Task: structure prediction
Amino acid sequence: MEIRLENLTKVFTDKNGKETRAVDDLTMTIPSGKLVGLLGPSGCGKSTTLFMIAGLHKPSGGKIFFGDDDVTRLAPEKRGIGLVFQNYALYPHMTVRQNIMFPLENLNIGRNEAHELVEEMAKLVGIEDQLDKKPAQLSGGQQQRVAIARALVKKPRVLLLDEPLSNLDARLRLQTREEIKRIQRETGITTIFVTHDQEEAMSISDQMVVLNFGVQQQIAVPQEMYTKPNNLFVAKFLGNPPINIIEGKIKDNNVIIGENIVIGTKEAKDGEYVIGIRPEDFKFDAKGFEVDARDIDHTGRDTMIRFSVGEAQIRALVDSDSVQGKDSITLSVKKGKFHVFEKETGQVV
Ligand SMILES: Nc1ncnc2c1ncn2[C@@H]1O[C@H](COP(=O)(O)OP(=O)(O)O)[C@@H](O)[C@H]1O
Ligand SMILES: [Mg+2]
Result:
């Protein structure tokens, strides 16, 4: 089911009357059956957005639609949502089976049917062997799967996940992330996945939304957002190692960094701009500009050299053989693989 947010706004007012605009005029569509990643730094309004969709926070303005239904004023339990949090929030004294069955308690569902539903959900998330254990006997990843099974047992129309992987160690995080993707595909449930981790969002999302200070920065499929960021904030937020940021200029449509290094052309007014180049977008080029190649990091798969162009410290991913034992090499920027931003606004040119 499609979810539509129209001018959604949430302002918190503390007891001294100070206002925090946690979510500011957010308009977006979450397509039916897709997994949408809501990404942004801590405090940018991700949870507040999710809680408004869930009905746990009342919006200060704007509307929320589930399909054609305006649910802005609908009670949370009537919205048909499943919620999963970072800390699992399982009942420690209950077994896994009792935890998953819990949301069915006050519904008019027979015992047998309830047990069948629990088995079905446990199978779906891959914990059918763990049903008689207590949560404390499971790993963090398994506990989070129990929480997902519990969120899905009432067959909600929407699944909302708030930083569900943040409490897991790196290995379990990767595994559970793949598992969530599989469960979402299998069930086809419209899902919003909140995270502050760009790599996590990039890998799991069909579509991604980036927020900063409650304001939507860009909506796009992950790869497009990575290669065509709307603004400097998005460019810097995505990618690890991060994009190189260089003060540069455009003169006669030549894009220039450093002393007088032309890295390509772009039709724009002459002037000073901020240039972004991703570390992987340099290449060896006999006719390129010369850089120091003595500062090298080997990280297993990648080799990275560090050099300066004017004031800017640059990182470039290179082929390890080609820098071996060399003091300097010549590089150029891959064709068109640079980003030009307005100095004042950070908007892409
Ligand atoms: N219940 C609340 N009362 C007051 N301010 C809040 C409340 N919840 C969140 N905020 C503020 O709203 C902003 C967004 O918070 P939140 O949605 O939790 O961010 P995120 O989930 O992206 O880290 C923050 O500045 C936060 O301090
Ligand atoms: Mg949060």
About this structure: The chain has two domains: 3-234, 244-342. The chain is about 25% helix and 35% strand. The longest helix spans residues 170-187. Residues 3-234 form a domain with the Rossmann fold fold (CATH 3.40.50.300).
